[in-house]
Amino acid sequence: MKAVLLLSGGLDSATCLLIARAEGFDVLALSFDYGQRHAVEIDRARALAARYGAREHRVVRLDFPGRGASALTDASIPVPAHGSSAEAIPTTYVPARNTLFLAHALAWAEVNGASDIFIGANALDYSGYPDCRPEFLEAFERTANLATKAGVEGRAAFRIRAPLLAMTKAQIVRQAVSLGLDFALTSSCYEPGPSGEPCGICESCFLREKGFREAGVSDPIRAKS
Description:
The protein is α/β, with parallel strands linked by helices.
């Protein structure tokens, strides 16, 4: 029983990896190099895939839209500190990122006979990205079954699995603890230092710190920063 899993190297996708393994799936892990300024997450994804027994790990290179598209892909746009932006959707939004990621995951799943696609999307403690909402994931699942040969012929009923969707970050941390995740292998920061140390001020760092604090768990990444 195989599943494709989007593995960014962050806390959420790492937790999803352990959930999928606990459910008995052979995991085909899929990561993306899209020119992100926090490219350390790719190395973390490789470490996680190796540590927790992914059947295969693929890193795909994507070229996203050019300058001005996102603070995560354009170094001339500063990564905003938590609470510094009045925009509902922050500048760290990357155009259609999860749509592109899931499309690649779907193609790989169809080729490998996998019906389940895991994504670490969260719609509670998150940054307001539209492609993390349940409405989007439900729509993509419908599309997956309409737009594939396996779906049309009835050989597969694709499911987009987002087990963390309705969980707080604290609940995610507790779930990760129960599954034995080594938090030191993960990276969540949008603008890490040369050695991968977190900046401590971006939205992603804030949400991670909030989750560990509310869960009453020590974060080894923050402890070293």
